Protein: LOG family protein
Amino acid sequence: MRWATTFGASRVNNSGLYQEGVELGRFLVQKGYAVKCGGYQGLMEAVSKGVKEVGGVVVGIGLEAFEPLRENNPYLTKKIIAKDLFERLRLLVKDSELFIVQQGSIGTLNELFLVWALKYSLKETFRVCLIGEKYLSFKNCDFIPKDTLKFLELYKTLEDFKGSLT
Structure:
């Protein structure tokens, strides 16, 4: 089974962004991926909904501390509860070859940087794809070495990303 892991905002007030998450979930299944996500609301729920709509597998990796605070994601095939953030990230990264980062805040950026560092240091084959216009500024980032930046794929829109998986 090929795994893709998605990261994104836990709160989405934009119906267009939510719909983009649903479309991403559908697309990943159509390309032969099972999907992992954080397992809660927002873009995690949207991607899960898209996966479920086309009969795919989506595993949510939750966090023990979040369980009493967050609503259940009704679209998950399976949910795993991690004891701490490090175990959660390890489970999200394990066996995945494709990582997609959509709009988010500090938690999403934390996941991006940890995945990037882990996969880069292990010299594994992987793709880290950032979708959204704001991520394009990474091209001009001067505090991260250019040879490290080459491991990030930057896409302005979901359509641009979809074209990369043909």
